[in-house]
Amino acid sequence: MKLITITLLSVFLTAQTYAAEAKKSVADYLQDVSVTIVSESSFSRGEGSGIIFSRKDKDGNTVNFIWTAAHVIDNLRTERKVIVNGASKTLVEFKDAKIVKVIRQKGRSVGQLELDAEVVKYSDAEDGHDLALLKVRKLNFVDPTVNFYLDKEIPKLGTDLWHVGSLLGQMGSNSMTDGIYSQTGRVLKSLNKHVFDQTTVAAFPGSSGGGVFLKSDNRYIGMLVRGAGETFNLIVPVRRMQEWATKNNIMWALDTSVKLPSNEELAKIPVEDVGADFSEESEQRKSRKRKETQKNFPFLLRVKDNLITKE
Following DSSP, what letter does each residue of the chain receive, concatenated? Predict the structure, then answer.
């Protein structure tokens, strides 16, 4: 009887240990695939979040792509006029964003890695999808990769979720919060016709671009972009990311079964959505729409302008 009791106790403790290790591995994994995005221009410095999607190139090197929100890096966008075959054209360019990865040891931050990342694809926040795909310039930066939820079925309301993001910017890098899937198909009529899903994961300025994951299997189900309170947040659902990626022939940035383009092919990809309008009239219209929408659903971006922090 004593032997049976000891055996059962041993099994119980072993199960507890496995459960603790599994929980630890979930946190470690989500930390590994999450980064801070720093976008610094001559007039502002923004700090948001991003997640890593890793692919192998033809030479066996790990290429790290970063998904984030377009509004996190829109201050890196510049325009200049050029003459092509006698005609004036507007050349759009993006400065590199900075990817920041914190190094921790025994529960303490002991430093950080900073790497440059070029903008591969961009869809603006007002008329587009508020999505941006970056590529870390250094090969073999890290091996971990996010796993996207590519199922056709939308997660059920009440599904448990994790969020990992740089809450309040780099000082709160890779903070974990939890919540539930609270609604689907939200449309901001003052903005555009694209749908958002709603969650209760706690988020703060700096969360923009951060991933929201299923607690059940850690798959990425959307990107946090806006909020109307700490637990009323809107995400770009992964099904909308798929729609955009399919339209722009970049599903390889979501699905490892799709062939990764060569460096030469990547260089030929138009950075902005086809048909994007950045005329003065369009920019004024977008500014009005942004102000109207921002009143109720502000971006969750940590911005510093002339040393004044805007929440």
Answer: -HHHHHHHHHHHHHHHHHHHHHHHHHHHHHHHTEEEEEEE-SS-EEEEEEEEEEEE-TTS-EEEEEEE-HHHHGGGEEEEEEEETTEEEEEEEEPPEEEEEEEEETTEEEEEEEEEEEEEEEE-TTTS--EEEEEESSTTS------B---SSPPPTT-EEEEEE-TTGGGGTTEEEEEEEEEEEEE-TTT-S-EEEEE-----TT-TT-EEEETTT--EEEEEEEESSTT-EEEEEHHHHHHHHHHTT-GGGT-TTSPPPPHHHHHTS-SBPTT----HHHHHHHHHHHHHHHHHS-B--EEEETTEEE-
